[in-house]
Amino acid sequence: MTAATHPPLIPQVPDSADAVLEGLDPEQREVATALHGPVCVLAGAGTGKTRAITHRIAYGVRAGILQPSSVLAVTFTNRAAGEMRGRLRQLGATGVQARTFHSAALRQLQYFWPKAIGGSLPRLVDRKIQLVADAAAACRIRLDRGELRDVTAEIEWSKVTQTVPADYALAAAKAGREVPRDPAEIAQLYSAYEDLKRDRAVIDFEDVLLLTVAILQDRQDIAEQVRAQYQHFVVDEYQDVSPLQQRLLELWLGDRDSLCVVGDASQTIYSFTGATPDHLLDFRVKHPHATVVKLVRDYRSTPQVVRLANGLLAQARGRAADHRLELVSQRPAGPEPVHTEYTDEPAEAEGAARRIRDLLDAGTPASEIAVLFRTNAQSETYEQALADAGIPYQLRGAERFFDRPEVRKAGVALRGAARFGGNDSALDEAVDLPSQVRAVLSADGWTPQPPAGSGAVRERWESLAALVNLAQDFAAAQPGATLADFVAELDERAGAQHAPTVQGVTLASLHSAKGLEWDVVFLVGVAEGMMPITYARTDEQIEEERRLLYVGVTRARTHLYVSWSLARSPGGRPSRRPSRFLDGLRPGSGSAAGRGATSSGAGGVERGFAGRTETAPRRTRRTPARCRVCGRTLTDAGELKLLRCEECPSDMDEGLYERLREWRAEQARRSGQPAFCVFTDKTLMAIAETVPDDAGELARIPGVGARKLNRYGADVLALCAGRDPGEGPAEEPREGEGGD
Questions:
Q1: Strands 505-509, 338-344: pairing kind
Q2: 131, 99 in Cβ contact below 8 A?
Q3: For residues 531 and 579, is the Cβ–Cβ distance under 8 A?
Q4: Tens-digit pLDDT profile for residues 344-377
Q5: What is the pLDDT of residues 483-531, one digit of tens each?
Q6: What is the sign, positive or negative, of the torsion defined by CA atoms of 399, 400, 402, 407?
């Protein structure tokens, strides 16, 4: 088989800033050298986006333009953050912070909590499912294991979209969510869950973001301290940001525009968690003078795989489809994707196992093969088929490499050998670093040949074999390296979660495969009811399922196998049919010509709005907001709320402003939440400057949405008219709401 060209595992550090740019294509080079002002990188699958942005950071640092400690690179998974840190280290850009949103926020929250709140930060719960179970017990609602997971997911979605329990039912209906229980019950469980957290003085991961947002909004001094530390921001996978994460990013930025975002609307597959591509798609609206670079040169997949991927998106509809990128493969030609129909699911799994055995026998490494499915429940059938065929496998999403017991134990043994190896007779005949590592790990179960079959013994061996292989690569990259040097390398990698490759066929859901790639990919179960999934009913949900399949296709470098089965069990009624997404793309299914959306164009660079060549339909642009005093275009979030520049004179009714603040404090006290959750200071200032006479005028003030108008409108209008507000109940406000 034709394998992709893989970069060396431990490359040499470039000797200069200019050397960092070597090997980048023209568009990647544009990204790497665009170090000022807002930058938006629209990067298709396999186009080297991580390479482009890490080289951008490294070039800025090595050229002396960016101070390493002033850069914060943010992504969405620990694996992606670890990979970014590893690449930056290899490029000589140490000292740059590369973290997930939650990790960066937690670090700031731990540091500023004593100053902002006092005392110690409440304990962070790793898993909220037990708290949800306790909340269900308190509400006398019985939930099975699956319902517990589903309700927990609904609570997480509510918090990242800043939806309070009282608003859950309406928000879930508006978002078209498939709710696992009656919405009123979920709202009750959500409210009880929040009460339990307060009673037990604990916080969850969503609270980390909410509380960080709260502190940065309420404490200008702390916000300025953070902004003085971090002056340049890079956000990867920007199509996946939630409203809460976007608000945090805005608070980090303040009134600056030193921001580089990277994303692909066609890979938006996490909307069920609150992610939205709108921030990516609206970037040019918010930043009219942004530099936009499109990466469409696909270095990952063969032209045959790319053709199928482009064909999937050509049939798409909706806003994300209007901005799709048409990939152009840079790889030599490869085999056509193979489409196979099976009688039932076990036959499909056995068919995949047979093909995998043939690939392994032909020399394809097991680590370069993946089986991807829509739901985790499909995994068991393929685990059994691979085990029956004697094929090693690993489950994606299992324990992280450096957290595995055998890896921790191996680290202790290697560290001891590095310190006291001179007294270890087992190392007497070890003449170089790889042989030393093999000698040490032999005592922990590593053998030159893998154990037969699969299971826990094979998995432990694969972990140790990954360390042996890493030692060989490390010695090749650094001749003369000692065992102590290798231990230091392992410590660096553990800190960055930069794991070595583990042998074994990967079994993974399509969602967990995002960001990964293999030489050979099996896309299984691609039938109606599974792809798209049964509960995807709205146009938006169907299109997200199409994008999910697109992500799966673009994980393959060379070989792609697409399969489906006509029945679930042997002898079952063959009632299934191939996914509609394959119509016109698989042999014998007709033509898809003329059914597609218009591509958003080829790769390249756009600066400002000049030279726009997009032919895709676009939403009507919003008229730029202008200062009502001097007429200047407003871009700062705070100024947009006031509808005037910060420095322009204010005609605020000071007495009304103070009455509004007192009223807000009472509302916050009664609900047990921070004052900004009712209205932010900027919103109160805007109300006191405008002094609205009716609900229509009040609703036009930024930060007063329909929900808050219904909840607080009567009180606010009474205060504006010089009357005392009514005594209506104050419902629990949206936790951490800072987007007003």
A1: unpaired
A2: no
A3: yes
A4: 999 999 999 999 999 999 999 999 999 999 987 7
A5: 888 988 888 777 655 666 667 899 999 998 988 999 999 999 999 989 9
A6: positive
> Is 739 labelled as part of a ligand binding site?
no
- Give the Cα separation of 455 and 442 in Å (integer): 19
Known binding residue 48? Answer is yes
CA distance 388 to 575: 28
Is residue 591 within 8 A of residue 584, CB to CB? The reply is yes
**CATH code at position 48:** 3.40.50.300
Place of tokens 């607080």: 712
Does 45 count as an annotated binding residue?
yes
Task: Quote the number of domains for the chain.
Answer: 3
The two tokens of residue 312 are 């999937």
Asked if residue 153 belongs to a known ligand binding site, the reply is no
Are the beta carbons of 628 and 353 closer than 8 angstroms? no
Amino acid at 113: W
Domain contains 501:
no
Rounded to an integer, what distance in angstroms lies between the CA atom of residue 480 and that of residue 570?
Answer: 59
489, 474 in Cβ contact below 8 A? yes
259-271 in b/e form (b: 16+ CB < 10 A) is bbbbbbbbbbbbb
Domain limits at 675?
A: 625-727
Q: Tell whether residue 44 is among the known ligand binding residues.
A: yes
Does the annotation place 601 within a ligand binding site?
no
> Is 550 part of any domain?
no
The residue from 293, 308, 341 where one domain ends is 293
User: Is residue 672 a known part of a binding site?
Assistant: no
How large is the C-alpha radius of gyration of the chain? 28
- What local confidence, expressed as pLDDT, does residue 372 receive? 96
Q: Which of 226, 261, 293 is the last residue of a domain?
A: 293
Q: What separation, in Å, do the N-terminal and C-terminal C-alpha atoms of the chain show?
A: 56
Residue 263 shares a structural domain with residue 130: no
pLDDT at residue number 190: 93
Q: Does the annotation list 682 as a binding residue?
A: no
Low-confidence ranges of the chain (pLDDT < 50): 1-7, 398-399, 593-598, 609-623, 728-740
